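User: structure tokens for this one?
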Amino acid sequence: MSGIKSDRWIHRMATEHQMIQPFEPNQIKSNAQGEACVSWGVSSYGYDVRCAREFKIFTNTFNTVIDPKAFDPSSFVSVETDVCVIPPNSFVLACTVETFKIPRDVLVVCLGKSTYARCGIIVNVTPLEPEWEGTVTLEFSNTTNLPAKIYANEGCAQLLFFEGDEVCEVSYKDRKGKYQGQTGVTLPVTPYEQEV
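Assistant:
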């Protein structure tokens, strides 16, 4: 029987097959100092990931046109910090602390956490395809006209795991997907870069 996978399945796959590394088998709601944080770890039917300290903040200093086929990396300012401030009506790229190895018969959907959504910070919905491996690059959009904060090493998005009714014929790994094995914040890969 296929469908969304439970905390028991997530725990088993993380420990026996290294699907999530590092893996937290509980829902963490406070930091090492005992202060409340945006929760992370296993939930009933998902896993709440953390974002790392590496951020790329979008800036329009050079009046660049954003083109996914010819992306200009100078559109971002790179920072390493515990608290990233997203400019009004702008966005930031970050990556997960966790590294993933998705099974061949599983599709993962990444959604934003309601704590951030209620502040006008939206995480782009993105899939993690069968047999994809790496850290997840996340996009946080600040939809407000005020600066907004996101916190490193705290929960920032939730992953939902769906098992297919049969194993796919061609996985992301089979077709040599351009984001296979990515680490850190990965910018858009153009078709030319993929061929090189």
